[in-house]
Amino acid sequence: MxxxxxxxxxxxxxxxxxxIRNLMIYIISGNVLVWLFxxxxxxxxLVNLLSFNAEAIFTKGQIWRLVTFVLMPPAFASxxxxxxxxxxxxxxxxxxxxxxxRQWGSGKFLIYYLxxxxxxxxxxxxxxxxxxxxPQIDATYINLSMFFAFATxxxxxxxxxxxxxxxxxxWLAYVDAAFFALAVIINKFPVNLLPIVAVxxxxxxxxxxxFDKFRPASIQQRQKTINFKNxxxxxAREQASKPYNRKCxxxxxxxxxxxxxxxxxxxxxxxxxxxxxxxxxSHVHFKE
Length: 288
Hints:
Blueprint: H1 2-14, H2 23-40, H3 45-50, H4 54-60, H5 65-68, H6 80-104, H7 106-131, H8 140-153, E1 158-161, E2 165-168, H9 169-186, H10 194-198, H11 200-214, H12 219-226, H13 228-240, E3 263-266, E4 273-276
Antiparallel strand pairs: 1-2, 3-4
Helix pairs in contact: 2-6, 6-7, 6-8, 7-11, 8-9, 8-11
C-alpha cells in the first residue's frame, strides 16, 4: 500500500493537470438533477437507464452506466423531512470531498474516487457473471468511505452533531464503521458485501497510516528514535557523495532541481528521511 501511494504521488506530481477540480460539485449536481427528473418521471425509465446494470452494460453496450450510477441518489425523497436529510447528506459529502481535494490535490482525489467506483464495478460484474444476480450499486458507500479518509487525516476536527452537540470526527468514524458492519450483517448477498468493497480504496490510500497507528512500537523502533542524531550523521555522510543535498522520499524532487523548494526531515520515520514541504505532513512513515 505504501509503495502504491508513492507511485500515485509521483504520478500526480509529474502530471499536474490530471484531475477534475471541484469534483464533488459535479457529482452532487448530478445527484440533484437525477433526483429532480426522477421525481417527475413516474415510469421509472430514467432510473432504469442510469443505474448500474452489468447485463445491460456488457450485452447491450450501455457503457454510460459505468459512470452514471454514481449520480443516483440513495432514495427519491418525497416528504419535507426526507428532502432536508437528502440536502444535508449532499452538503456533508461536498464538505468532506472538497477538504480531501484541498489536502491531496485534484489528481489524487480523482484517483481515490475512481478507484472506489472501479472496485464497485468489478464486484458488480463478478457477481453477475458468477450468480446472474445484478446488485443495485450506487455511490452511497463510496461517499461514506470518504469520511474514513477524512477522519484519518483530521481526527480531531470538531463537528456539530444535530447542529448542537460538538463531536470529534474520529468518534463519528467509529459510528460510520459500525454502520458498515451492521449493513454487512443484516443485508443479504450480494448487497451485504458492498460496504466492504467500498472501503478498499480507503485501505489502499490510508491503510499505511492506519496500520502504523495501531501497530505497537518495538524496542528496536524506539531505539532508532532515540538514535535519531546518529542516523542524521550517517545520512549526511551518504548525501556527501550525491549531487544534491535534499531529496523528497515521495516525489523525488531535489534541492538542486528546485532550489526554492523547502525540505524537511521527519522525526517520526525510522531512520533519517527527507520530504518536501508538500509531503512532510502527508507521507507514510517509514517503519523497520
